């Protein structure tokens, strides 16, 4: 039988707040005067954390929740917030008995983009119900819809990941030159994840190639140490020709390259062309 919370005049109950970042880091906080350890996570004492009312409904409308003060905890570095390490992190909010450690999760969601205003960081929380508003029906497209080496693609990411070492950095243009076994052209559209330096653990996209330099999708405002290590994954332009010639993976191609477009509705036969000529209606 589940516990009925706040049923007595005096309760040994605290609110806990857990952050599960996309890079694997887990942080926990609790509105108690001492740290609490449960679910394999140390929940640091954060008496200043003030949760507002959490609205849960039985319909499909997203639940709402806000937390003030948690983003200013000493365990959360300002630099990590600015770098986006908390963007898209999963959030768990619940109740815990600080004596028995009996607990219940009352809210699940994700952190949206973190904003800074007047030296304070705020984050929008989106509940799990927000996923129900996404249209699960795929749209037709001439290019592949699957993520490269992800679900649907079926290729192994390990076969296209390469260790790399920083040779030169151009922070103004977000460009880096790497010592890597893969040619720069093969990395266009791929991803880079730093192992060393201030960006360790952060994924970045390869938006362009200039000679042997990779142009990343975000500027590198912080200097990287010489010889910083990274792991780069090759890119894919998602066309059928590339899927066939380069990867031999046409059987898993998730697109419709030969599907007629909307302009086919306006086409008409040209007299005297023997049915071979088509014109475009105006």
Chart the SSEs and their pairings.
Layout: E1 13-20, E2 26-30, E3 36-38, E4 41-45, E5 50-51, E6 67-68, H1 78-83, E7 90-97, E8 103-117, E9 120-127, E10 161-170, E11 175-180, E12 191-194, E13 203-210, E14 213-216, E15 229-233, H2 240-245, E16 267-269, E17 278-280
Parallel strand pairs: 2-4
Antiparallel strand pairs: 1-2, 1-7, 3-4, 5-6, 7-8, 8-9, 10-11, 10-15, 11-14, 12-13, 12-15, 13-14, 16-17
What characteristics describe this protein?
282 residues; mainly beta; seven-stranded mixed beta sheet; six-stranded antiparallel beta barrel; 2 helices; 4% helix; 35% strand
Describe this structure in words.
It is extended and about 90 Å long. The longest helix is centred in the first third of the chain and has 6 residues, at 78-83. The chain contains two helices and 17 strands. The chain has helices at residues 78-83, 240-245, and strands at 13-20, 26-30, 36-38, 41-45, 50-51, 67-68, 90-97, 103-117, 120-127, 161-170, 175-180, 191-194, 203-210, 213-216, 229-233, 267-269, 278-280. The strands form four sheets. The chain has a seven-stranded mixed β-sheet with strand order 3-4-2-1-7-8-9, with no helix packed on it. The chain is mainly β. The mean pLDDT is 81.
Would you report the number of β strands? 17
**CA radius of gyration:** 26 Å
- Anisotropy-based shape: extended
- Secondary-structure-based class equals mainly beta
Question: How are helices and strands ordered from N to C?
Answer: EEEEEEHEEEEEEEEEHEE
Rounded mean pLDDT is 81
Largest sheet: 7 strands, mixed
**Tally the helices: what do you get?**
2
Q: Strand order of the main beta sheet, please? A: 3-4-2-1-7-8-9
Low-confidence stretches: none
Which band does the percent of strand residues land in? 35-45%
